[in-house]
Amino acid sequence: MNDNAPPTSVGSGSTGRIHPGTSCAARVVRVVAAVLCALGLSAVAASPARADPTAGGDLQVAQTLGDRDLTFMLRRVTGLPGPLHVDVLTHRGTAAGTLRLGAVPTGVSADRAEGSSAGTTTSRASVRLGGTPGSYGAALDIDRAGPWELVVDDGSRTARIPFVVPGQATSPPELAVFGGFVTAGVLILVTLFVAVRVRRGAWVLLPAGGVVAALAVAVTAALLSASLPPPPQPGGQVDATNDNVTDPYAVVRPVTNDYSRPPVSLELGSYPAKAGERGTLRLSVTDGATGLPADDLVVHDGALMHLLVIGPTGELWHLHPIRTAPATYEVRLRLPAAGHYAVSAEFARLGGGVQQVRSATGLTVADGPEHNGPARGGSSHNGSARGGAPALPAELTPQGPGTRTIEGVPVRLSAPSPTAGEASTLTARIGDTPTLQPWLGMVGHMIVVGPLDKADATSPTRMGQAAQGAPVWAHAHSMGGDMSGHSAHDMRAAPAHDADAMGHGDAMEDGHETGKGDGHGAGTGSMSGLMPLNGDSPADETVAAYGPDASFVYTFSRPGYYRVWIQAERDSAVLTVPYLLRVSPAGGAR
Fold first, then answer.
1. Is the confidence at residue 487, as pLDDT, over 60?
2. Dist CA 144 CA 102 (whole Å)
3. Hey, how many other C-beta atoms are within 10 angstroms of the C-beta on 251?
4. Which residue, of 65, 196, 251, 570, has the fewest CB within 10 Å?
5. Contact present, 423 and 555 (Cβ < 8 Å)
6. 59 vs 442: CA distance, rounded Å
7. Would you put residue 587 in left (φ > 0), alpha (ψ -120 to 50) or beta?
8. What's residue 415's pLDDT?
């Protein structure tokens, strides 16, 4: 008999004495309760189960819609059914007007009711754009998880922006954790009942052992959940359907983003507009292996497609064509001068990585009537008369490193002695106050084309044709401002319809991997305020608090002359600042 055992109530027929088995059972119950508390607290502290795919940030998509350069912010949907808030960010010079928005569910589903409504507009709203730069919003109703399209109609053309509304699903580790604790709780009650009702204390060990086993399963699942790979993300790693968005764990096969999809072919439609006239350029992307339409582009660096156009005078256009139909895009242009225009497109395929594809043909624009007027690309251009040699205004003529003024803003580029084969740091100070705005999620962009002969690099008539055959076309981002981890995408090879995607720090030179030419390089982690943290969204263009310095790290693989354009947003206007750099040969020769 245990003299230290607490007294118990006396029931009918009780002797008032405590059976030794009961005392043993009480100790077991106390031990189990202590273990439950300790393991429960450890599981709560160490359980980082992250199965809620809605933890992602907002979706930012730039669109060149007619004569407007707009940025659409699709705010994440936090509950279903619920609202999708769409903010339209305008820039300086954006014309006022009304946009009609619509939400259209797409994709397929095993549910007949959901599958039958695909392709039907379920919600509509309007956004009235003002004449001043700013944010203009509207809300659309979303009633289900799955792939959707945001339809934007400006009265003359319609853009279709794909996006995915993820559902909330419970992961297998979470199910194990919840199931283990629920089972442990039930078995604790069974243990207490057995301890009170059964005279043999040994019987208490059976449900008590079950409690320990259930807790072990729950805690093990909680601890291992952090190291388990997440499910394939619909729309990012696997094609989104209503079913696998609702339950991403329905795809049980291992999926890796191994960049195995082939590159695409970029085809340009006819462009009948003459110099100085507005025209629409249509583009189509097809799979390089099958020839079928490649309608699997995903938002990369804030756009579905980044289109670079370089004219015969060396002027740059950085545009974002709208998606009008599956694998079909279009953009409205007014090309100021007759001659040849080189065209390149950068995008990311679902499961295929980032690709930069140069058109083998480019565009040839015929002479037009005499004209004067603003040119696209954030600058102004005075055209020449029919048949005359095109000319650039002084502020658009590339100069060497130093200070110049673009649209009233002083810009100073520091590029100390760039040498082929060595990482160079280029720093542009744009203005004199930290008021730069993130454009496409980055503080600054740098477009590099070369190397070119000095005569071609400085020629107002031969630069476009020379750029078409230049071995290097690169798009680098300011250090620390990259949201996706791809900060420079080089394409170095003879012009072709398709080219392999460039990865981190690797580039292609005449078909050979160099391991250089990345604008990511050192310095990532600076300006970390642009990075999304804890599932929050990064700063958008409404935040004017960065700079005034935008720094880039880039390795020029060959000596020669390079056309370099620095782009940044300030006062709701995207500035394009051209420079001409001479890269010295390795070894110090000049």
1. no
2. 15
3. 18
4. 196
5. yes
6. 14
7. left
8. 93
CA neighbor of 173 nearest in space, from 46, 283, 67: 46
The per-residue DSSP string of 267-326 comes to EE------TTSEEEEEEEEEETTT--B---EE-BTTBS-EEEEE-TT--EEEE-PEEEET
Q: How long is the chain?
A: 590
Write out the H or E segment, with its range, that includes residue 34.
helix 20-46
Nearest of 466, 491, 457 to residue 562 by alpha carbon: 457
Which residue intervals of 439-565 are DSSP H helices? 454-457, 463-468
Task: Give 4-63 pLDDT, tens digit per residue.
Answer: 433 333 333 444 444 444 455 555 556 555 555 544 444 443 333 332 333 357 899 999
DSSP string covering 379-409, please? EEE----TTSPP---GGGS-B-SEEEEETTE
Measured between alpha carbons, how far is 448 from 487 in angstroms, rounded to an integer? 13
State CA 21 to chain mean position distance.
65
- Integer-rounded Cα radius of gyration of the chain: 31
Q: Count the neighbouring beta carbons within 10 Å of the beta carbon of residue 569.
A: 27
Quick one: tokens of 173?
Answer: 């580790």
DSSP state for residue 16 in the 8-state scheme = S
108 neighbors 240 (Cβ within 8 angstroms): no
